[in-house]
Amino acid sequence: MSTKIVNAEVFVTSPSRNFVTLRLTTDDGVVGIGDATLNGRELAVASYLRDHVAQLMVGRDSRNIEDTWQFLYRAAYWRRGPVTMAAIAAVDMALWDIKGKYAGMPVYDLLGGASRRGCRAYGHASGMDLESLFDSIRYEMEEGYKSIRVQTSVPGIEKLYGVAAQAQSSGERYDFEPANRGSWPVEEDWDTRAYLRHVPTVFEAVRNEFGPDLPLLHDGHHRMTPREAAQLGKSLEPYDLYWLEDCTPAENQEALRYVRSQTTTPLAIGEVFNSIYDIKDLISEQLIDYVRCASTHFGGITQLKKVMNYAEMYQVKSGFHGPTDVSPIGFAAQLHVGMTIHNFGLQEYMPHSEKTKEVFTESLAFENGYLNPGETPGLGVEFNAEAAEKYPYEQAYLPYNRLADGTVHNW
Ligand SMILES: [Mg+2]
């Protein structure tokens, strides 16, 4: 058996949206793939991998995943950051994929085996008014989702995060991919007072229509101050949310102490985090209930498994970030982690487009609200380089926000 890596290739492809993929090949011809997609900044990670990491992979033993992770993290001297950690994540996933193929086992078996039959997923509902929102919730329930994220338009705000009815210039659903193709980010508007007034009325209407059982989630998308977040958390308490996500900007972690002291609404945070150091105090002080980190932006399977083992001691559960800006490889990677950890909570899921599925073939199954990565050895995703070539990279930017007076605000 010759498990040495002989080739490291980087692919940037755009089947509906941009993805960065790393492919490692061993002397035996075993192939492993990893996701390094960083929405709106894809080429920076592709360069990090092509110009600085690929040559270091050639000649390494693919079996030594922990050593390779530590080598890439520590030997660069410059630690952390979304570009570095997405690159490390891609290497890490590819190595777990290779190990699974050598072992003839799905990755979750190598991580400790399945702790559950499948990972419960939540779907995304949104609407411009209550009628279209209710239709959207009913549609998601018919698709099989047992938990629903609810985003709503707000009177006075023209374009708002997460509301699907706002079509993209590309023709894609807005909530399917908020990044707009082009060389400049689209400007959106924001008014926190209008938002705080409106959102509780929407959740009251949703509860009246759908009853008390259905788990409901909401994403604040980093827009509130700690006091505003506390106000929203309190005002949503009667509607029993499953979680309130990203209520304040994630870089100010102390903000969560105040929010936590003011409301019992469960809190989820971490999709923009890239290191265990971003989230360790939020976990140990029990300031959050759900870890929103994604394998792709968080150093891969190795670090995600570690942070969830740490979180287990504090009764904090997983709620991994899983929209379409995580490629099918990155999604599979965190699904394998979700299958094995004891403290799995809920998995965000948004099916990829048909074009994306042409480039990435998944063994994943979604049935009756539950996701399962399947029994295929490795991650269970195949990358089709020929199909990828049909969809060359197209520049795209996530939108940004301005307040009524023109001040830039968090998007
Ligand atoms: Mg979010």
Q: How is the quaternary structure best described? A: single chain
Regarding CATH, which class of the largest domain? Alpha Beta
* Overall pLDDT score: 95
Poorly predicted ranges (pLDDT <50, ≥5 residues)? none
Q: What ligand species are in this complex? A: magnesium ion
**Secondary structural class:** alpha/beta
Q: How much is the radius of gyration in Å?
A: 21 Å
| Strand-residue proportion | 15-25%
Just name the CATH architecture of the largest domain. Alpha-Beta Barrel
The biggest beta sheet is recorded as: 10 strands, mixed
The number of helical segments is 13
CATH topology of the largest domain: TIM Barrel
Written overview of the protein:
The protein is of the alpha/beta class and 411 residues long. The chain folds into 2 domains: 5-106, Enolase-like, N-terminal domain (Enolase-like, domain 1, 2-Layer Sandwich), CATH 3.30.390.10; 119-376, Enolase-like C-terminal domain (TIM Barrel). The chain is built from 13 helices and 20 strands. It has helices at residues 42-57, 65-75, 82-103, 107-110, 130-142, 192-210, 226-236, 255-262, 280-284, 300-312, 328-340, 354-359, 385-389, and strands at residues 5-13, 19-26, 31-35, 119-127, 147-152, 180-181, 187-189, 216-219, 243-245, 267-269, 290-291, 317-318, 347-348, 360-362, 365-367, 370-372, 381-383, 396-397, 400-402, 408-409. A hairpin with a 5-residue loop joins β1 (5-13) and β2 (19-26). Magnesium ion (MG) is lined by residues 219, 245-246, 271.
